[in-house]
Design brief:
It is a single chain. It contains 16 helices and 34 strands. The protein is of the alpha+beta class and 711 residues long. The chain folds into four domains: 108 residues, Arc Repressor Mutant, subunit A, CATH 1.10.10.10; 95 residues, Phosphorylase Kinase, domain 1 (2-Layer Sandwich); 192 residues, Orthogonal Bundle (Transferase(Phosphotransferase), domain 1); 178 residues, no CATH class. The strands form nine sheets. It has a six-stranded antiparallel β-sheet. Strands 4-3-2-1-8 form a five-stranded antiparallel β-sheet, with no helix packed on it. It has a five-stranded antiparallel β-sheet with strand order 20-34-26-32-29, with no helix packed on it. Strand 23 and strand 24 form a beta hairpin. Helix 7 packs antiparallel against helix 13.
């Protein structure tokens, strides 16, 4: 087998050799030990970034790529302790891994990587797989491949050799096997999921223990054997684009039905998200991963007296994860974010987020950090799905927004309620399609019956002409009558002879008095003073030096003041720019707007570093209402031409930190948002993304060609 010479197979450091394919660590004395999965992955990422700080957040994303929040602080620490034991290292006197308070870890010694030699003639020897499992109690499972990992374990595809069927084996990592709470949750998952027999919930077959081959004896790994599903996760099925309406409703009904079944058994999932919903090749939904499930019981307290959504049915006592907010940030309910006692309505909120994402392609609550996301969940009103996808029916939008109510008293109380509303919507859409389909043959029939041949058309036309001529010949013309006298009273009501009167065409449709069209408001432009919110210096004069940290892209680039000037015209508006060499741009701020009613907002902005797709701008009004606008901003280096933007300025060069020119062109873009002109504006909140910079904002009203205001 040919191996790329640049593909590293091992890493060498301070007498150690780490086999990057087998996960084996060999010390200077030749002793070899296989590292467990999490310590191995942590060491690998540290070696790849030797000398650099690797944050705990980066480690979390490496170990739990699906963003599920578990007690990862404890899990990372446990894995790090096992890694230090293997290296004979300590946190107090580190030789290899340095702990940086509130930041992360750094690998302290140089690393050399060993490349695999290119060879075509000599096949390489097979490397023992980390996935070869054996166990006397469950040897009938033959592991085939790793499928992925979640917050509570690693999943493999395997073959049940006794029944000759494919299964999925989920293993609790060794690092968590020593954690009593993790063991209890793993047991609860098996117990919760096995108690559910539903076609839209993944079936549990078995539980047991297996030992890793070549692993130290006495370290069996607990596993759950479950139904193997062929297809893809709902997350991958969506992939940033809305699903077809019919598919959205069908999958949503099945998910709601699965949640109803779980809630009836007293089980709250607590981590409903597209990554935990599987779509089979037949198009059916399967709810997965009850690793964070909570089993309710009769003694469970609930401060809401009207809740009866979770019957007990004798379920065992619940388990709370150390009183911390558990789940996945984008899909958490407000009460989940606050760490409050949860009930079934938390799942319904998360399901509302999933339904929103199925209908629009994006989640309703977004942000660059978990804090920004939780702030949006607690305080921001989601943008109407129909604004993002015009094909979303009004009734579906109402269902989604009701599920996303921040106060659970106003949310759906039962999953069965959502299912019923979705069922009614499906029935209405089917009826609508049936009526439309029935109308098509009728229309075709009428068209066919009414289609005449050309000679028939000419004969009819000739007959009409002859009939008209005869009528004019025979019809007596009325004799001219003397003009009637105008009485004084009538004369007063007639227009003056001296004033010209425009002739009016008579039409029955216009016989009634016309209602004059509403006058367009007098055009108005109001510049927003951004100086109180300036927090970034984007514009410099040539010759001025500045550090990379003072640049807008954190690399050392700036906009040249000599080319920008003090004003930029775009779309009927002249924008005023801030002074150079001082803060003159805004990012991530809430901007106070001048009081007034406007129908549009025009903005001069740009993105840097290519991280500004699907950004959310939130407008609040004086009456407390708010609306959100989702807009992707192109990068100033490579414009993407996203919908809703146009180039306001193209300049041939930029400035570097030493004050010199960088002879690459850059772009500044203009954006327009529609506002509700019946309400007075109050604030505009920019995305919490340091890579989105706003240079100027102008509020407008009644401009020709401006977008219609929101109603």
């Amino acid at each position: 087998m040919q191996v790329s010479p640049r593909s590293p197979v091992a890493a060498h450091f301070a007498g150690f050799r780490l086999d990057l394919r087998a996960g084996e660590l060999q010390n200077g004395g030749g002793k070899t030990a296989r590292l467990p999965d999490q310590p191995f992955r942590i060491l690998k990422i540290l070696l790849e970034h030797s000398g650099e700080v690797v944050t705990r957040e980066e480690l979390r994303k490496c170990l739990w790529p699906n963003d599920t929040i578990v007690e990862f602080e404890h899990s990372i620490s446990a894995a790090m302790n096992r890694l230090r034991q293997a290296l004979s290292d300590s946190a107090e006197n580190p030789q290899f891994i340095e702990t940086l308070a509130r930041r992360g870890y750094r690998f302290m010694v140089p690393v050399q990587f060993e490349d695999a030699p290119a060879s075509v003639d000599v096949p390489s020897q097979p490397i023992p797989s980390r996935e070869n499992l054996n166990g006397s109690g469950a040897s009938h499972y033959q592991v085939l491949e790793r499928l992925g990992g979640g917050g509570m374990g690693v999943v493999y595809r395997a073959l049940d050799t006794r029944l000759n069927r494919a299964v999925a084996l989920k293993f609790l990592p060794l690092e968590m096997a020593e954690d009593a709470a993790a063991l209890e949750r793993f047991r609860r998952e098996a117990q919760a999921a096995s108690a559910l027999n539903h076609p839209n919930i993944c079936t549990i077959y078995d539980v047991g223990e297996l030992s890793l081959e070549m692993e130290a004896p006495g370290e069996p790994q607990r596993f759950i054997a479950m139904e193997f599903l062929d297809g893809q996760t709902l997350e991958r099925r969506i992939s940033g684009k809305p699903l077809p309406l019919q598919e959205t409703i069908e999958l949503a009904i099945e998910i709601a039905d699965a949640l109803s079944a779980a809630h009836t058994q007293g089980i709250i999932h607590r981590d409903i998200k597209p990554a935990n919903v599987f779509v089979t090749k037949r198009g059916s939904a399967k709810v997965l991963d009850f690793g964070l499930a909570k089993l309710s019981h009769q003694a469970a307290s609930d401060s809401f007296s009207n809740l009866s959504a979770v019957p007990t049915n004798g379920a065992p006592a619940g388990i709370t994860l150390l009183g911390r907010a558990m789940g996945t940030p984008n899909y958490m309910s407000p009460e989940q974010v606050r760490g409050e006692e949860l009930d079934a309505r938390a799942d319904l909120f998360s399901f509302g987020v999933v339904l929103y994402q199925m209908a629009t392609g994006i989640v309703p609550f977004r942000g660059e950090t978990p804090e920004a996301i939780t702030n949006a969940i607690l305080h921001r009103v989601p943008e109407a799905p129909s604004h993002l996808n015009p094909n979303v029916p009004l009734r579906l939008e109402e269902i989604i927004l009701k599920a996303l109510e921040k106060d659970r008293k106003f949310r759906y109380q039962f999953a069965a309620e959502i299912r019923t509303d979705l069922d009614r919507l499906r029935r209405a859409l089917v009826s609508q399609q049936s009526i439309s389909a029935a109308a098509l043959p009728q229309k075709a029939q009428v068209t066919s019956a009414g289609r005449w041949s050309p000679w028939k058309k000419w004969a009819l036309l000739a007959g009409i002409v002859v009939l008209g001529a005869v009528t004019l010949k025979l019809w007596p013309l009325p004799s001219r009558q003397p003009e009637a006298q105008i009485l004084p009273a009538q004369a007063q009501s007639l227009p003056s002879q001296s004033a010209p009167v425009e002739p009016a065409e008579f039409s029955p449709a216009h016989a009634a008095t016309r209602t004059p069209a509403p006058a367009r408001p007098r055009p108005e432009k109001r510049t927003v003073n951004l100086s109180p919110a300036y927090n970034v210096t984007a514009i410099y004069t040539p010759g001025t030096s500045f550090s990379s940290r003072q640049s807008i892209d954190q690399v050392g680039s700036a906009l040249p003041a000599e080319l920008l000037g003090s004003e930029i015209p775009w779309s009927g508006v002249t924008f005023s720019l801030g002074p150079p060499n001082a803060p003159n741009a805004v990012t991530g701020q809430t901007i106070l707007l001048p009081t007034g009613r406007f129908d549009g907002l025009k903005m001069l902005a740009l993105g840097v570093n290519g991280k500004q797709e699907s950004q959310v701008f939130t407008m609040t009004y004086a009456d407390g209402a708010s609306s959100s606008f989702t807009q992707s901003l192109s990068d100033w280096y490579t414009p993407e031409n996203f919908p809703g933007e146009s180039e306001a300025l193209l300049l041939p060069y930029r400035l570097t930190g030493n004050g010199r020119r960088d002879e690459r062109e850059f772009h500044v873009y203009g954006y327009s948002f529609s506002l509700d002109d019946r309400k007075k504006v109050r604030t505009l909140t920019l995305p919490e993304n340091p890579h989105v910079l706003v240079l100027a904002i102008t509020l407008v009203r009644g401009l020709p060609g401006s977008p219609s205001p929101l109603r």
